[in-house]
Amino acid sequence: MSDFVHPDSVVRQIWGDADAVLLIFAGSAAEFALSKAVDWLFFTGALPADPVGRLFSTARFAREIVFGSEEHARRTLSRINAIHGAVERARGDHIPAWAHRDVLYMLIDYSERAHALLHHPLAPGEQRELYAVFRRVGTALEIPELPDTYDEWCADRRRHLERDLARSAHSDRLLAQYQRHLGAWRHQLLRQVQSGLVPPPVRELLGLRPTPWFGRAVRAYRLCTRLGLRPLFHRALIPAAYRAEVTSLGQPVGVTV
Length: 257
Hints:
With 257 residues, the chain is mainly alpha-helical. The protein is built from 15 helices and no strands.
């Protein structure tokens, strides 16, 4: 049975690295809050009730796709479509196509940014491979008007950042919930990570200011992980309620097909 993503793909390298997945969702958490369609995230009430938990739920879906067989990945994508459809029927409206593209684009962009921050920038071939995988995901999710190539996607990503983001009352409510669930000092650490990760439009809308020591801190963390100290950092930095979820991000995905 064929895999949805080749076992040697850089996409599997990224999504099999717990730190990379945490960075992907640190960036996405910032950008999610600024989406002009963020009201959809509030409709069921699940996101503001447990915003960190919802990010881990999304990570589980993504990893099932990336590490699953073609058949299992397709079933997972069908479940996601069904969830979206149920929300749309309950609200009596349709999630805008551009909002679906924005979410897909976040996963692509922050996958690339996380790998660059933790390891090195992706090579051109790896960039094209990353986009090709997520374009297949977007096509299976019936997201229209996806660019054909990585270079075309880069241009469209810039247009979406310029057009689809705004700070709103929903933004502030969601950001406040992150702070409440993480605690003051962890939330401040999250903001520092986001400041060195997100693109300028997101940084400006959230008032994030990169600190001069951020790059040195990342290099020191990479050294500590090579020395086997990652579990100690995770225990210190991750709230107890989510530590098992973080541990699972670095483990093989158990898939029943």
